[in-house]
Write a structure and sequence with these properties.
It contains 10 helices and 8 strands. By secondary structure, the chain is α/β, with parallel strands linked by helices. The chain folds into 3 domains: about 55 residues, no CATH class; about 100 residues, Rossmann fold, CATH 3.40.50.1400; about 150 residues, Rossmann fold (3-Layer(aba) Sandwich), CATH 3.40.50. The strands form 3 sheets. A 4-stranded parallel sheet has the order 6-5-7-8, sandwiched between helices. A two-stranded parallel ribbon has the order 1-2. The longest helix is centred in the first third of the chain and has 27 residues. It starts with a strand and ends in a 10-residue tail after the last helix.
């Protein structure tokens, strides 16, 4: 289960997609009327045309890169396992009920579906909304099969091995630094159930949480720091050779430092040759191909950068397919620890 995409690069289709995406209360967590006025009165009327232009720069002859890549992943995995594989999106026309119905056609006696939200890290605006959307479709469709979810896999050994296999060939490129650009979220999302905790939150103050406890187990910032640290340890990259930033912000109060600002600052700090990767995404999409590979490179180069290389997402890399296959084998062998709920 991935994010989704507009049906085309036409402004009307992009506007429809943005309306659905931004009206999600887990994306913009304002009261409904305030969200409606903001999204349909301010954001989408002005942003749709700009976003449509951005989509045109990355659109392929087969359609949206995110959709195409997710289908390629589906095909690659299906060739490795006997269980039927379908894809669904959180937004757009590839809805969970269509995936459920397609699975039932292949397996009329279907008893259980395992959903894999393709988000390594927990955030209410990505992983959580995908889970709740699929649950809603399951409930409203009165399906009799059991629905379960693979939990966020930011520190899973198979995921990290796949990520290491993707990144390691690029380490031979001459570079001064590696930047992990993660998708940003509003800082208030991290402690939405306990706002007072913001004052003492180590993650929001730029410090790594040493231990995992009930209050920080789903902390997005802690999880992205963990992914970066564990990956760099696997690849023997010292801590002073990589850093973390956050992209795609909407408004004030989002996690810092901001990727676009860091790209502007780095050349003056002596970082002229940069490798950049976006592990919050497993499939290349608008936020990686246009925001980072195109606009990010332009920002870095204009600021004095000499070399800029974006490492592709996992996409349908053989090691990523192997990781998904490995999870399925673990589940078949009775290992339920990777599931969100029993």
């Amino acid at each position: 289960m991935n994010l989704g995409s507009p049906e085309s690069t036409e402004v009307k289709d992009v506007k429809r997609y943005l309306d659905e995406f931004l009206m999600d209360p887990r994306v913009i967590d304002y009261p409904w009327l305030s969200r409606l006025l903001l999204v349909k009165g301010i954001i989408t009327p002005f942003r749709a045309a700009k976003s449509a232009k951005a989509y045109k720069t990355i659109w392929t002859s087969e359609g949206s890169p995110l959709i195409v890549i997710t289908r390629q992943l589906q095909l690659a995995l299906q060739q490795q396992i006997s269980e039927p594989v379908e894809i669904a999106m959180r937004y757009g026309s590839l809805t969970p009920d269509k995936a459920f119905n397609a699975l039932l056609k292949k397996e009329p006696g279907l008893e259980e579906v395992i959903a894999v939200p393709l988000y390594p890290h927990y955030a209410m605006s990505s992983y959580e909304t995908a889970v709740e959307h699929a649950r809603g479709a399951h409930k409203s469709g009165k399906y009799t099969f059991k629905l379960q979810f693979v939990k966020p896999f930011y520190d899973d050994a198979l995921y990290l091995a796949a990520l290491a296999d993707r990144v390691s060939p690029y380490l031979s490129w001459t570079h001064d630094h590696i930047l992990f650009s993660y998708h940003g979220i509003p800082a208030r999302h991290i402690h939405r159930d306990d706002p007072k905790a913001v004052k003492t939150c180590l993650a929001l103050n730029g410090t790594e949480c040493v231990t995992v406890n009930p209050t920080n187990k789903n902390c997005y910032r802690r999880q992205v720091i963990t992914t970066a640290k564990m990956l760099m340890q696997r690849l023997n990259v010292p801590p002073d050779k990589y850093s973390i930033s956050f992209q795609s912000r909407l408004g004030k109060g989002w996690l810092e430092p901001f990727t676009d600002k860091r790209l502007e600052e780095m050349p003056a700090e002596g970082i002229k040759k940069l490798l950049i990767l976006c592990p919050a995404f497993v499939s290349d999409c608008l936020e990686t191909l246009e925001e980072i590979e195109e606009r990010g490179k332009e920002i870095f180069t204009k600021a004095g950068g000499e070399s800029f290389k974006m490492i592709p997402c996992l996409n349908d890399h053989p090691s990523w397919v192997a990781a998904l296959k490995g999870w399925i084998e673990q589940l078949k062998n009775g290992n339920k620890e990777m599931l969100l709920f029993e």
